[in-house]
Amino acid sequence: GQQLNQSPQSMFIQEGEDVSMNCTSSSIFNTWLWYKQDPGEGPVLLIALYKAGELTSNGRLTAQFGITRKDSFLNISASIPSDVGIYFCAGHSPNAGNNRKLIWGLGTSLAVNP
Amino acid sequence: KAGVTQTPRYLIKTRGQQVTLSCSPISGHRSVSWYQQTPGQGLQFLFEYFSETQRNKGNFPGRFSGRQFSNSRSEMNVSTLELGDSALYLCASSPGQPNEKLFFGSGTQLSVL
After folding, report:
1. Cβ neighbours of residue B36 under 8 Å, at least 6 residues apart?
2. pLDDT by residue (tens digit) across B34-79?
3. Contacts of B56 in chain A (CB under 8 A)
4. B68 forms bridges with which residues in the sheet?
5. Which of A8, A52, A57, B35 has the maximal Cβ count within 10 Å?
């Protein structure tokens, strides 16, 4: 099925560094959602974006809905060890039919060295 | 509000057996979606139920089935288990409108031996 292109696939950074990851699609999206998943747990919603150009923050996290509606990025500032996990992007595409089925990226695995 | 509850948390089965997983959505949510997650494969959509009807379906074989009850609780069943069915099965709920965010449970980790 349709999938989002999420990059990078994995990152290994030092505590205190900033992190940037992104998600792209060949078609437009109506929403972009960013989730974080800890090992053995379900994904937890971090940020939801509903409008092209929208920039939203949640603590040290900032995400933007791309102007073209075909991409989104997530930034984490001043990373800490508990930021470790897998970050997924997901979105609703009008091309997917009824705007109720989420399209997912394969995730960015983040490791933080204390 | 209580979150999405999935039971059991862990399951070990052998090939050929069948298994039933349960999901209780957030109170007031009428849509329940099921996903299969294996390492490196991301989240693979199984199906979505809304008001006791299957509304969306992914590309899984007929061995995977589900249902939803009038209180919005949902179950999924996998028959004739195969080794490749070992995965984390995630349930997510939402009110059921377009362009919504999903809220996930902690998942059921199924191991097939």
Report:
1. B43, B44, B46, B60, B87, B88, B89, B90
2. 999 998 778 999 999 999 999 889 999 999 999 999 999 999 999 9
3. 98, 100-101
4. B74
5. B35
